[in-house]
User: Fold tRNA-cytidine(32) 2-sulfurtransferase from Aromatoleum diolicum.
Amino acid sequence: MNAPFAAAEAALPPADAQPLVEAPRPEAGDSRFSNTFLRLKKKLERGVGKAIADFNMIGEGDTVMVCVSGGKDSYTLLSCLLALRERAPVNFRIVAMNLDQKQPGFPADVLPAYFESIGVEYRIVTEDTYSIVKDKIPEGKTTCSLCSRLRRGIIYRVAREIGATRIALGHHRDDMLETLFLNMFFGGKIKAMPPKLVSDNGEHVVIRPLAYCTEAEIARFARTMAFPIIPCNLCGSQENAQRKHIKTMLQGWAREHPGRIESIATALSQVVPSHLADASLFDFKGLTRDTAVAEGDIAFDRPELPSGTTTIRIVSDLTDED
Ligand code: SF4
Assistant:
């Protein structure tokens, strides 16, 4: 566990730690914000702090480039990181970055004005990937894969230019779960979206500090914060139909079976390779009577269902009352 972040709630910042910016900070006693909202804010920040600690996402001296698209998720990510930096007993730099892909109707003045208003260091990059994608992909075909590849290349280049040691993305828990099911249903793999990864060339560390935060909570937070949201469909591309289908399935489960989504999210961090069937993760061929197997022999038992205490470990760590 990353002790500095785990202790961030209680720790006083060191005397010489001056935040680089003064972001607006809704606090108790501020009549514009209800107690319910302040609890939600605290819960999100604790979720981000826990993810940073669990996966050792940010350390002393890091430069974190936060990719801000203008959607609710990336605004929330930036807000939480700015708030946490003020309390964290490690110093790190935050640079907000937006890539203007020259999509029709993109309001280019919105994000610079927002970044100025909160005083965060920022970088706006303008690259007309929209025209490239339109030029290369035939009408009616999906444009997202080329668009994402181009965007990734630009993000990595900018990270290098500003000396970023971390690239922070606004994907949240529900994005991760949707990806898990997409990969299982259509890719034949148990594979989700990792909270932390290294780029293929080994140059960049990408982090997802919202890994424990739910989309519904982020949406509520963003509404009250009245972030200047930029619509996400300016390119004219439709949301992936299969992802939409899986989102609807997960939302249905959340309504009809409370706790199920939290259980699946917890399962991502409690994998038992000896009880799957991937011989590259567990040496089934070399298995002998002397091999110790995690979770023991259940060959003749009914699967044991958890009572609920482990299932909601992460959730209970982050309850509203905390
Ligand atoms: S939705 Fe539009 S902007 Fe987003 S990846 Fe697809 S083509 Fe690119």
Strands lie at 63-67, 93-100, 122-126, 166-168, 196-198, 205-207. The chain has one domain: 3-240. Residues 7-23, 308-322 have pLDDT under 50 and may be disordered.
